[in-house]
Amino acid sequence: MTLSAAQLRWGRLALVLFGTWAIFYRFWPVSHKHHFIGHPQQAWDDIAAIENGTLGFGKVFAINMASRPDKRDNIALGSSVCDFSVDWIDGVFPEDINPKTYPYNWKKDNQKSEYAARRAHVNGMRRIVEDRIGSAIIMEDDSDWDVNIKVQLQNFALGLREIQGTTDVPNTSPYGDDWDVLWIGHCGIECRTDLPFYEAPNDFTVPQSRHFLPYLRDASRFERPDHARLTCAIQDGVCTNMYAVSYQGAQRILAALSVNPLGLAEDIDIGAQFDTSLGAICGNGYLRCFAPYPALTGTYRSAGASEKSSDINDVKGDAVGFETRGVLYSTMLNVKQILNRQPVRATWEDVERPFMESDMIKIGAGSIYMVQLAADKKPRP
Questions:
Q1: How far apart are CA 84 and CA 181, in angstroms?
Q2: In the chain, what's the furthest Cα-to-Cα distance?
Q3: What is d(CA 131, CA 125) in angstroms, rounded to the nearest whole number?
Q4: Helices (H), 34-148
Q5: What is the model's pTM?
Q6: What pLDDT was estimated at residue 36?
Q7: Among residues 159, 189, 162, which one has the least CA distance to residue 289?
Q8: In what order do the strands lie in the sheet with 143-145?
């Protein structure tokens, strides 16, 4: 059977249209597009370990100066009402530092108090190494966390297992076996886009973005629906109000920021404040670093003179009231309610749920995605 001239013309036109559509689809820059991978099959066998007195880690430490017993009181009571225990790492005063201890590459235009703060964190790494602690949280003494922190961390752990590729129950930690740093509390991260990320939807403990801490690093390349929290591998971060480190991670940080074997710091450390240096060595592949977005923890400031808020920077100003930033159902602001067995209140009045409810967060309801950026969609040569 032969085709008519009209049929041939229509056939050629259809091929042209199809080819045009295919080229348009292949090369049109689709920014921030998420490619769904699947709903993970999650292992629950040891997830309850996160409900223990150290949140599923070997220890929980807080850095505190002896001159600030008020901040120590905050952390001691806040951890008590949330049923976990805190040990202490002494803060370091600038005047107590021998100048001989400065790393050779420390930037001399930084404040002495900034090196003192870095030294306190490095002392925490040494404590983990000396005591052979499998993993530990280190927090600063102005930290605050959601009253749901244990449930939040369980969800975080399940996401971490998936993006680490853990298919079985981990051997060393409920958070997985392939990490050095978990940047739990931060004021900005940059997620890696070459690895999958995990999205946990329907988490009503996620504050609106207007109530985030001021974020100094941009994770916005990841689309995030309201009430969703992401877990991703990171290439940078800033602010170390709370993070976890594995034993091997502590060894590697101690090597990079202090011991410096065979010029290691020349390649990976930028001689900066602790959080800035940590972000840099997460980004160059020396450490395997992961984080939630937005952060799980925030910061707390007691009422009184404004200079009470920082032991590093010289803060001046009028007296201030109690304030928490970055946490929707603040532990510090709800101590009275918890002790009196009253409903937990939201930090801000302009929120969807002013009181905490039983369905704020669902454990394990998440999915794995990849991100494809416009810059990745380039024509083939």
A1: 20
A2: 97
A3: 10
A4: 69-81, 112-130
A5: 0.84
A6: 66
A7: 189
A8: 143-145, 297-301, 323-325
DSSP notation for 292-305 = EES-SEEEEE-SB-
CB 137 within 8 A of CB 149: no
Mean pLDDT of all residues belonging to the chain: 83
State the total domains in the chain: 1
Contacts (Cβ under 8 Å, ≥6 apart) of 260: 103, 104, 269
The CATH number linked to 231 is 3.90.550
Buried b (16+ CB within 10 A) or exposed e, 203-242: bbbbbeeebbbebebebeebebeebbbbbbbbbbbbbbbb
One-letter amino acid at 50 equals I
- 271 in any annotated domain: yes
pLDDT tens, residue by residue, 306-348: 565 555 555 555 556 678 888 999 999 999 999 999 999 999 9
Structural domain span for residue 231: 38-301+352-372
* CA separation for the pair 159, 362 (Å, rounded): 13
Is residue 147 included in any domain, yes or no? yes
Q: Has residue 170 been placed in a domain?
A: yes
The predicted structure's pLDDT at residue 107: 81
Alpha-carbon distance 350 to 207, whole Å?
11
Question: Which position has the token pair 């974020």?
Answer: 215
Q: What are the pLDDT digits (tens) for 253-284?
A: 999 998 876 677 677 777 889 999 999 999 99
**Strands (DSSP E) along the chain, which ranges?**
33-38, 59-64, 87-90, 135-140, 143-145, 181-185, 189-191, 197-200, 229-237, 242-246, 289-293, 297-301, 323-325, 367-372
In which band, very low, low, confident or very high, does the pLDDT at 102 lie, cut at 50, 70 and 90? confident
